[in-house]
Amino acid sequence: MCTRKCSKCIGITLFPLATCAIVSNLLLYFPNGQVLQPSEITDLVWFFNGIVGAGILVREKCCSCHFCLLTKKTSMLLSVVLAVLGFAGGVYCAVISSLGLVGGPLCDTGDGEYIYPFRNDTLDNYLFNQTTWSICQEPENIILWNIVLFSILLVIGVIEAVLCFIQVINGLTGFICGTCMRKRKVSILYDCGS
What we know:
mainly alpha; 5 helices; 2 strands; elongated
C-alpha cells in the first residue's frame, strides 16, 4: 500500500468538494439571485462555514503536494497536520449547516420585518411540514433555497471530514512505517537474499 498515492487521491477528491462548498456558501448570500441587505441574510451564513470551513481549510489539504520537496517523512507529517485542519473545517461546516437547517431562514412574513419564524418552533419542524413554508413572503423561495444549499454544505462537510480523517490515519501510517510498503518489502527480501 502506497500512502502517498492514497494521499494524492484524497487530495484530488477534496478539491472539487471544497470548490462546491465555497460556491454553495456564496449562493446563500443571494437568495434567488437577489441582492439583500446584510441584515436580511440568515445569520448562520455569516459564519462562512462553506468558505472557510469546508473551503479554505480543506483546500490547504488539497494543495499539500507543494511540500513534495521535503523528505517523505516530513511531507507525511505535514500532511497529517493539514488533514487535521481539514477535518476540523469539515466538522465545522457540518455543524453550522445543521444549525442552519434546523433554525430556518430569516425572512419577511408580510409585515416588512425580517424574522426567524421557525427558530423556536418546537412542536412542528418546518423541514417536514411544507405547508408552513408560505409564512415567508420575501425573499421568494427562501426556505427551499436555504434547505438545498445548507443540505449540500452538510453533505460536503461530512464527506470532507471523513476523507480528512482517513488522511490522518494514512499520513500517520506513512510517517511511522514509510510511504510505500511494497518497496520496503522488496528491499528487505533483497537484503535477506544476499
